[in-house]
Amino acid sequence: MTKENNSDYFARVITEKTATYNSSPLTSFHDHLLKIFFDLAQQYDGLDSFYQICVAIPQALHPQIAVSLAVLTHSKNGFQLACAGKSPIHIPEHIISHLPLVAKESSYTEEDVLLLPVISRPLISPTNGTAPDKLMKNTMENETHPCLGFLFITHFELLTSIDRLFLEKLVTRIGYNLQRRLLQASHLQHINFLKQLGRDIGHNVISPNMHFKNLFRQLEKKINLINHEVNVNIDFVNKPSLRILKRCNEIRADLISTHEELLEHYNRTSLYLETLLRQEHFNRGEFILKARRCNIETEIIIPELEIYRRRFENLGITIDHPHNMRDRRFYLKGDQGLLSQVFDNLFSNAVKYTATSTDNHGSPRKAVAYGCQDINNFPKKGKKGVKFNIFSTGEHLNDDERLTIFNDGVRGGNVGYNPGSGHGLAFVKNVVEIHGGDVGYEAVSGGNNFYFILPLTEEEPAAGDSSNT
C-alpha cells in the first residue's frame, strides 16, 4: 500500500469517527472519563498503576458500585485478581477458575456480577502490505478473541444503559493499552535476559575457552621435546632401532600436523565466539563493530580458505587466486571477526554447490575464485567502495532464486542432499548491511558470482581491479 493510499484511508477514518462521536449518546461526563483514562494511562507506566486506573475510572460512574480486575497470568495458566476498587468485592473462586481464555466482546452477568471481557485484538497496520479495510473486516468478523482479563462490577443495576455503553468502550481501550503494555514488559524482560546472557557467556564461555590456548602451548612443548630427543639420540641407535625411530618420526609429523590444524581451528572458533557473543551485542541489541585496518586476503581470506582447502581438494575443486590483492590493505571500518564469518559462509556454500562447467575454451572446469575491484560512487556519488567476489563454477540460479537467495531460510534448488538451514546468506547480508554495504548475485560465464560491496573510508586510496573470476 502506498503512502497516498494510507493518507486517503486515515482521512476517511477520521471523517467516519468524527460523525460517530457526534452522534454518540455518551454524555460529556463519559467523554471526560475516557479522556482522563488516556491521560492517566500515558502518565503512569507501571502495570500496577495501570490496573488501578482501569478500576478507578468505572468506579467513578457510581459511588455504590464495586469494581475489580482480573488478568491472565501465563505462569498459573489462568486468571487472578490484579486490582480491586475502594469497595472490594468477593468473586467466587469457581467464577475466576472458569473464566474463558477466549470470549465474545459483549459483557454478561453471572451470580449478580457483571463481567466485561478485556480482549486482545490483532494490531492493525496499514503499512504491512494488507489493505486496512480488509484487516479491519477480518478482525470484526472474528466473533471471539483471546482474553487478557475481565472487569468485574457488582450492583451494576445502578448503572444506566449509557453507563453500560461507556463500559463497553472503556474495556476496548483497556484491551489495546494492556496488550501493548504486556508486550513492552515482555520485550524488556527479553532484553534484560539477553544482557544477563551476555555477561554469562563472557564468564562461562569466553574466559574458560582461553584455557585451551594454554593446553595447546603445553602440547607444543611436548612435541618440541620429542623433536629434541630424536635429533640428539639419532646417532646412538642401531639398525633395528632406526625402524622404531622412523616410525616415531612419522608419528611426530602427524602430531605436528594435528597440532597445527587444532590450533588453527581453535583460533578461528575463538574469533567467532568473541565476535558473535560479544557482550556489547547483547547490551545494545545489535551487532557492535570493532573496526580496524587489515589485509583482507592474508588476514581473512587465506585463513578461511585453509580451513576448506582439504575439502576443496577432495572434491576436485581448484582455487584461483587474484594477482594483486595480497599487498593491499583495505581501511573499511570493518570487523575482522564478522567479515571472517562472511567469507566462511561463502566458502562453505562453495564446497557444497560448486559443480563442473565448461570454460570459454570448451574444457571442463570445477573451480572457485575470489577477487576484488573498486566501485565508484558507492555508497553515494563521489564516494568509493570495494566489491569482493566469490565465484564458483556450476549452473546458474533461476530467476526466482536470484530474488530470494539472501532471505533467511531460503535455499537454492540445487541443494540435493547437502545439509543446511538457509541462514548463511541471510547472515552475510545482515553483516554486510551493518557495515554500510550491499550484497548481490550475478550469473556470469561458467558459473555463479556472489559478491558484497563495502564502503572505503577517506584513508584508503583507490586501487586497481584485482578480480580473478
From TrEMBL:
Show the Gene3D superfamilies listed in the entry. Answer: Histidine kinase-like ATPase, C-terminal domain
The signal peptide, as residue positions, is: none
Q: Which UniProt keywords apply?
A: Kinase, Transferase
Q: What class of enzyme is it?
A: transferase
- Database matches in InterPro entries: BphY/WalK/GraS-like, HATPase_C_sf, HATPase_dom, His_kinase_dom
Give the catalysed reaction(s), semicolon-separated. Answer: ATP + protein L-histidine = ADP + protein N-phospho-L-histidine
- Its protein name is histidine kinase
For this chain, one GO molecular function annotation is: phosphorelay response regulator activity
Record GO biological process:
osmosensory signaling via phosphorelay pathway
Where in this chain does the record put each Histidine kinase domain?
A: 225-458
The family database entries (SUPFAM superfamilies) matched by this protein are listed as: ATPase domain of HSP90 chaperone/DNA topoisomerase II/histidine kinase
Q: What is its EC number?
A: 2.7.13.3
Keyword Transferase, does the record have it? yes
Q: Specify one Pfam family.
A: HATPase_c
Q: Does the keyword Transferase apply?
A: yes
